[in-house]
Request: fold
Amino acid sequence: MEKLKVGVLGATGMVGQRFITLLENHPWFELTTLAASPRSAGQTYEKAVEGRWKLDVPMPESVKGMIVKDVSKIDEVVKDVDFVFSAVDMKKDEIRVFEEAYAKTETPVVSNNSAHRWTPDVPMVVPEINPDHYQLIEAQKKRLGTTRGFIAVKPNCSIQSYAPALAAWRKFEPYEVIVSTYQAISGAGKNFESWPEMEHNIIPYIGGEEEKSEKEPLRVLGTFKGDHIDLAEDIKISAQCIRVPILNGHTATVFVKFHKNPTKEELVQALREYSGEPQALKLPSAPEHFIQYLEDDNRPQVDLDVNYERGMGISIGRIREDSIYDWKFVGLSHNTLRGAAGGGVEAAEYLAAKGYITKK
Reply:
């Protein structure tokens, strides 16, 4: 098929950089437009991010000479794209207005930002878990007055290390969850060069993260109701979120109570057999196996497992009985791949496969 033309909003930040690397040689998408703040506009991309390339993979040659556009000049940005990825760094209320303005130009917006995660008619989706929530787009387009423009978002990066397991185990009726996440510094858009005080350090607070970790899974696991999502009321989550000196990879330790009494073998089997529409559709970014279960007591480990399925798979280990809760386990996900830009690219692939994103 003819490639869809895509732009990246917020192209100079860490998530924007990750989008750019994932779009290099993408079989369905062609990166044609880079947009960022006015201070970067008019420069080549290589000049705009000089000294600020934060990834451990090189900048693609194809983008070095591209001229960065002013993200606030919306008509200029959208004229050569079929849709955009949004990774802008602004206040939430500004992002809400900004992304809607893009959508109203009949340009679909696939957003990595949290600003619209609780807008009732904006779908917040992990494609393997709740793709039916994309049906909200029709109600959203009516509200916006658009025919093809809309906003779709992905959930917070930290929930990806445990919410997939809860989704795989819904038939066992999990109802109470205690989770602690140990989150990489790239989740804050930084590396060790830009955040040296994180070396050999742990910070026991990440602003807003615990609320997201407790509430967002309830929306992902919720039920589509025409113009909104009914939150999952059968499960309660309590979270603590800690920043740790790791570059990439969010780890979670999780305790779960179930109404039904699964065996360890049933829990493991449910993880290994869990699959979704991205796997059936063979989307380019979709992992062949969404969740792996690791038998070794010392797994999952960031060094060994964070890049499972090109960073798009989830690693679970150490399922064992608990003295207070029923079962406990450890989860791991790549926060800038599955959790951020990679999850956004997979979402866009799903939306393209289902006809929500088309050529203009």
User: Anything to note?
Assistant: Residues 4-156+341-353 form a domain with the Rossmann fold fold (CATH 3.40.50.720). The longest strand covers residues 174-183. The mean pLDDT is 97.
